[in-house]
Amino acid sequence: MKRHTFSAIAAAVMLCAAITPYTPQRHIRAADAYDVEVTVDLNTYRKPISPYIYGVNSQFRSEEYLYPAHATSARQGGNRFSGYNWEENYSNAGNDWKHNSDEYLVDFDKTELAIPGAPALGFAKEAAAKNVPYKVTTIQMAGYVAADGKGEITDDEIAPSARWKEVRARKDSAFTLTPDKTDDYVYMDEYVNYLVQKLGDASSETGYQAYNLDNEPSLWWKTHAKMHPEQPTCEEIVSKSKEFASAIKDVDPKAEIFGLALFGIGAYHNFNNAPDWAEHADEYNWFVSYYLDEMRKAEEEHGKRLIDVIDLHYYSEAKGECRVTECRDITHTACIEARLQSPRTLFDHNYVEKSWVGDNLQQFLPVLYNVNKSIDKYYPGTKIGMTEYNFGGGNHISGAIAQADALGVFASQGVYVANIWQLNEIEYQLSAINLYTNYDGKGSAFGDTLVSAETSDAVKATAYASINGSDTSKLTMVLTNKSLTETQNAEIHINGDANYSSAKVYGITGDSSKIKLLETVDSIKNNSFTLSLPALSVVQIELHTEDDLLMGDVNTDGSVDDADVRLLGDYLLAKKAAKITAANADMTQDGVISAFDLAMLKKQLLVWRTPPVIEDVVGFWETKAGQWKLKNGLGGKTVRCTFSAEAGNNLKLAYGYWDPTVKNEETGKMGIWVHNDTTQLGTHPFDENGMLVLDIEVPESAMSVEIMIYNYMTTDENGKVVQLDKGEVVLEKVVYK
Asked: Does the N-terminal or the C-terminal CB of the chain have fewer CB atoms within 10 Å?
């Protein structure tokens, strides 16, 4: 009987087997091909993947084309919903269309118009019919909503006026399912109660699981200038978040609340230059931190969490010949290349995109890394949502690759809910979602637990791998080839306790947005095989093992977890009710169930749950031989730089920076480049391993810090100093000390 086990002994045996007799046959490298190694490790870190990151958006009651076969979340929102009047179904377009108030959200259908909340009712029912488990709709919070459908709002009808009704969080009187359309108010707690009564609460299949607190509030004064003419302040959004979130929770305590829905990184930074941001800028590094801290204080004040998810919208600003989200010309190769790399801005410390963000806001990059840092510091337990995002390319294979990459990043960075927003064509992007949720057309999906996967060339190829729970009998892996011209010869190696015997390869290529079965692999030996991917492609690899026992699954429920530890402990204590599967419990495979098996089970669970140590990395890039520029945002901090070169050689260093606080006497303007004796770091030898580690204390006002080599040298047998090529010195990494 074949088994798969995660015991240390078996893992060691497997590892030895993987590196001895079998070496996968290498492809002969042609001019239009490249080799890449892909390594999957099942014995290290494992991380649960939120099931709701494979989501879509819809502004309307029904948009069939936005549903892939297996979308896992759906959001109803956008600019139109900021001015939506649920009682009468009028809404306002804002500056999307002449600040027009009309019946757009019910498609000008008079029957639908007469049903309160018709768009939300229809949207929830359709999503439930398509088995979408997580639904989000929008709560109005800007202050006013459309009172009629009479068309354009003129300058003398700016709110407050008869063309608007005031929004209030609480009714403070009995709810009704037939709201009063003759008064001047629209109540949000009554709206939530209406939806709960019609659809069920957040725990039901038909009800809404979450509510967005409006949409992109930092832009209200621009997108909805006739409804909210004054620029919102930090204090306003915090106050309204508390008020409206608590009102919703009182009606549907099981619902989750999405706060902010910030339009982009400029809003993450300072709430779009909010008038009162300066009052908080000294205490908080960016608005995200301020908002999280205020919501933490709100929980202490109310005795319950009000905001469950911090919601961030993200439309890539990366540029090739134009912005990647706007370029629809598939001949623009610079745009394609920029799009393929653009998801790296979310997680990669050593990547700086070509954009105004890359030029000016490096201190907040990578985005999700910094958001997670703020959550950990100011409000632990808060989840991350991206209810609107897009990387462009919906009409091209590059869009599918970027989309698939983004979903892998969302999984690895702990995003809770993500919903793509359609910009233009979307077929390639929806196909990439299906590559995770329904790649064979029969409901087969990427697993629910992320395992370690990496490639030897992360610029050209990325990999994400998963299993279900702790069951390694099926392994799924998404692999990309980002080269525009080269076939990728991927040498795939799997370290783990399961022997994989076969694989199916499903993929999307440039000739069609449809997912196809590209290849089957029956020659996997010692968990290694080679796979060729055409230029510009993304695949889902489904691997199977014939093993039929899951070692450690003491209670045979299909997963290995704390319940198995407790049951095995009870068995060893001879508790009568403790019945185990002995074959699964024999971790050491010595034929005896003992305390050693329990210890091994506990140890392996600890390994799985221990996240890898991630250093606080500082991004940098080489500007020329012997000179490197560090990303901005280092003022007042100490960074540790690691260099490598020939052991025993010496390095003389200095650093320069731009100081905007000092007046340049020659030009009369503020700002000077500091590069003099005060920045020299001295001369230092490389150790016996060819390594050199130096700390740099960056001045508070420093920007655009650059490290520069003065001399790289050695001493010959006559004691004479010999100058060497600066290009031989490598800056390996820079981290915050």
From this structure: N
pLDDT of residue 556: 81
Whose CA is closest to 468, among 82, 42, 52?
Answer: 42
Q: What are the structure tokens assigned to 250, written together?
A: 């009182």
Work out the percent of the chain whose per-residue pLDDT is above 70: 94
The DSSP output letter for 458 is T
Cα–Cα distance between 354 and 546 in angstroms, integer? 48
Predicted confidence (pLDDT) per residue in 295-352, tens digit? 999 999 999 999 999 999 999 999 999 999 999 999 999 999 999 999 999 999 989 9
Contact residues for 502 (Cβ-Cβ < 8 A; gap 6+): 520, 521, 522, 524, 543, 544
Most confident listed range (41-45, 200-204, 676-680): 200-204
Give CA–CA dist 229/159, Å, rounded: 8
d(C-alpha 288, C-alpha 707), whole Å:
31
What is residue 302's three-state secondary structure?
A: helix
Q: Which pLDDT score is estimated for 66?
A: 59
**Which H helix or E strand runs over 541?**
strand 537-545
Contact (CB, 8 A) for 90 and 101: yes
Q: Given this model, what pLDDT does residue 22 score?
A: 30
Q: Render pLDDT for 207-218 as a digit per residue (tens, 0 to 9).
A: 999 999 999 999
> Do residues 222 and 117 touch, judged by C-beta distance below 8 A?
no
For residue 528, give the 3-state DSSP assignment: strand
Q: Report the alpha-carbon distance of residue 73 to residue 209 in Å, rounded.
A: 10
| DSSP class of 147 | -
Residues ≥6 apart with Cβ < 8 Å to 677: none
| DSSP letter, residue 664 | -
∠ Cα 317 238 99 (to 5°): 60
Task: Report the sign of the C-alpha dihedral through residues 300, 302, 306, 310, in that order.
Answer: negative
- What one-character-per-residue DSSP string does 467-505 give? EETTEEEEEEEEEEE--SS-EEEEEEEEESS--EEEEEE
Pairing of strands 383-390, 415-420: parallel
Residues 6 or more apart whose CB falls under 8 angstroms from that of 717 comprise: none
State the DSSP code for 10: H
Encode pLDDT of 264-305 as tens digits: 999 999 999 999 999 999 999 999 999 999 999 999 999 999
Whether the upstream peptide bond of residue 366 has omega within 30° of 0, thus cis, is yes
144 pLDDT more than 80:
yes
What is the bridge-based pairing of β-strands 487-495 and 33-48?
A: parallel
What average pLDDT does the segment 519-524 reach? 90
Residue recorded with tokens 């740099």: 696
**Cβ neighbours for 122, distance < 8 A, ≥ 6 positions apart:** 61, 62, 112
Query: Which residues have C-beta within 8 Å of that of residue 638, sequence separation ≥ 6?
Result: 695, 696, 697, 698, 736, 737
Residues 520, 502: Cα–Cα separation, whole Å? 8
Angle at which helix 287-302 crosses helix 234-251, to 10 degrees, equals 40
Catalytic residues, which ones?
216
Cα 482 from Cα 504, distance rounded (Å): 21
Q: How many CA atoms lie within 13 A of 557 on its CB side?
A: 11
